[in-house]
Every structure is written in C-alpha cells, then in structure tokens.
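Replying to the earlier thread about multi-chain prediction with a worked example.

Input:
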Amino acid sequence: MEENNKAVIILFSGDMDKVFAAFTIATGAAAAGMDTTLFCTFWGLKAIQKGNLTGTGLMGKMMGVMNRGGLKRLNPSRFSFGGAGRIMFTKMMNDKGVSPLSDLLKTMNELGVHLLGCKMSMDVMEIKREDLIDEVEDVVGVATFIKEAADSKIQLFI
Amino acid sequence: MEENNKAVIILFSGDMDKVFAAFTIATGAAAAGMDTTLFCTFWGLKAIQKGNLTGTGLMGKMMGVMNRGGLKRLNPSRFSFGGAGRIMFTKMMNDKGVSPLSDLLKTMNELGVHLLGCKMSMDVMEIKREDLIDEVEDVVGVATFIKEAADSKIQLFI
Amino acid sequence: MEENNKAVIILFSGDMDKVFAAFTIATGAAAAGMDTTLFCTFWGLKAIQKGNLTGTGLMGKMMGVMNRGGLKRLNPSRFSFGGAGRIMFTKMMNDKGVSPLSDLLKTMNELGVHLLGCKMSMDVMEIKREDLIDEVEDVVGVATFIKEAADSKIQLFI
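Result:
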C-alpha cells in the first residue's frame, strides 16, 4: 500500500518552544500541500485548551491549576524563570518578525490542519471537549492516531 | 522497496509519562496488526529493567543508584514532587480505568511487540542482559535499529 | 511517489545525551548507505555552533551567554550537577570505548551526512552563519525540511 501525502505530528509536550516547533512544522507541511494532522496528548493538550480551569475531582482540579492550559500560559523548556522566559522569547520572536503561536494557530486553521485531542489523556486529566478550543476537529483514541500515522509520509513525536 | 507494515518506536526517555505514551502507541500499533518494535535506549532502558541495582565500576554503581530502573520507579517528567507525582498519576489513571504500565507490558507481550535493548547504552551504563526483564527479545546495536526503522511505516523517537 | 533511501533527523534538543543519540543514529543511517540529513533547530543549534559568544542585541547576547554553544559545553538532560554530569558521562563513554561527540561529528562528515541549520531559530536567537562550524552545509527554512522529510524513509524529532 502506498502512503498518502500526509503528515502526522503527535504533540506530547506543553513546552512553549516545542509547541512552537510543532505548529511551525504543521504549518509548513500544510503549506506544502500535505494533509496534516496535529494529535495533541498529555501536556500537549495545553496548546489546544481554552485556558479555563479544568477538573472535576480533587486531583483533577489540582492538575487543572498546576497545569493550566492555553497558548498564553506556555513556558519554554529552558530558561523559564517563573514566566520571564516566556516574555523574553515572545519579545525575541516578535522583534524578528516571527509569527506568535496565536497567529500560527490561525494559519493552521486556514490551511486545514486537523487538530485532534487524545481521548485517554483528556479522561485522565479530566479535561472536557468544551475545555478545548473550537478549532479542534475531534477527540479520538490511539487507534485513530495509528491509522493516520501508518498512512503518512511524515510522523513526528514532539 | 516498499515499506512493510511495521512500526518502530525508539524509547529514549525514562519519564513515566513518556514511557506510558510509548507503551500505549506500541500496544495500539500491534493491536492494529502492525509488526511493532520498541527499541529502548539510555534512560528508556529503565522501562525494561528488572529494578535491581546495576553497575560494576564506581561510576556505574553510582548511576545504578541514582537512575535505578523498573516500571515502579519511574517518575513523571513534570510534577515529580520527590515521588508524589508518580503516586498521583498512578491514582488518576487507575480512577479512570486506564491500564497501568505493568498491564500494558503484559499486553505488549501478548501482542508480540518486540522489546529490544540498546547494546551501546547498556555498555556505557553497565547494565547487563540479566538486569533486563525476561520479555526482552534481544540486545542489539544501532545498525539493527536503522534497518528496522527504514523498513517501517511508523518511526517515532520518544 | 516512492520514498527515497533517505533519513531526516530534526535535532531540537541541546542536551548532551540527546545530541549523542542524534549523532549515533545519523552515523548509523549514513553507514547503512542512507542519504542522511541532520536539521538542527533551537537548542539543537548548539551542537553545530563553534562555541563563540553570539548575539547582537541585549537579549540575543544574554541568550548567547546562558545558552553558549559548542559540543564541549553540552550537559546531559539528567544528572547535570552544574557540569559534573558532563564529565561523568564523557568518562563513562570513554571507558567503554564509545566515540566522543567530536569523533562522531568527524565520522558524520566523512560519511556525507548533511548538516543543516534552521534559519528561523538562528534569526530569533541571533546566531549567524559564521557562528556555525564549517561542516554545516546550508542554512535553510522549514519548507526545505518538510520536502526532505516527506521524501525520506526515516524521520525523527529528537
């Protein structure tokens, strides 16, 4: 079976710099005409969360506070400095004319990148469909991810 | 040369959450009928170690204490809290009916996932074949990994 | 379109152990006759920097100091101990006859591995072409990376 012109990126990390890499690669792949999917799981869910507090049980709520989602709350994997790193990186990217994450999200949407949430990690972390941004196409399990990945030319775990 | 229906996952990380992702993807790929290989290297060796103390020389023994293997000793990449994070995640997964790592390991075994250890990192860290669990099929070098990966539909570095 | 006998590794991390994994896999793929590309971005640029201080603006210079490049300055992702981890790992690898990073770099060069720098992250971090080692073949954007990755048998994000 020949592979289709697809790219599948699994975004596991919620670090600002890795989310930026994932968004940039997804945008690039879609711009090159590839049918592109960004499958967000675990910490990577933060990138497609609205940013409201989440969780129903005690631990889910604790997790929701400690690990609050939303693009504006992401911190870089290095030089975090309690939030200062985020401001520094944002300013450096801005100074060089690099699109911020919110713009990349819009571009991905315009280019038809499929945003998917991982059902199992959402269950574990008590994140609901309505906690995710509207651009998310679907919430799926690992079987769907495997099917897409096996049929794609590019698969990356970020 | 056409690619075969194979999936190759290189598990480099020893973080509980990443090991969980690797085990879940490997299980999913095998359940979908793919010939699946999990190649464990560096910190990822912890996931297939028995958990005994390892090392022969001074530094190897130090490493064996600081980086002791075994599924029950893995800590999440975030919110480690000196072991409390492990208990919290395990409880959250358990509450939601998600299989623990030890069950996923059994399932992988039943589905015929090939567990491989990386010879070079085992040499460096002074981990012996008998320090690995019995389910491990073989200890191989990077050449074997490359051969399998080049012949597979899915390759992920976790 | 059939995929060519290519391997593309995106090196995002600047951690010593991950750079070691990337160099080892790239060397292995090239030794197996694959046309191999190592695309270095973000922290991964450190692996192909000369090691001089970089940056032109205030923040770029701060980044240049905090995140100084060069193979000899890389620290492992775990057990860093303010530089002691680097010495420990280097000694352990040396004791076991494993090639140091500088030797792997030479081997990659001899085997024709293409070393590429990511234009966008170099712009953001104010790293110039002349801050990179001479072995680097080109500085390219994400579009080039996508094109190569889509045409390759192995794609890994490290």
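The helical segments of chain A are 16-31, 58-66, 84-95, 101-110, 119-125, 142-150.

Feel free to reuse this layout for your own posts.
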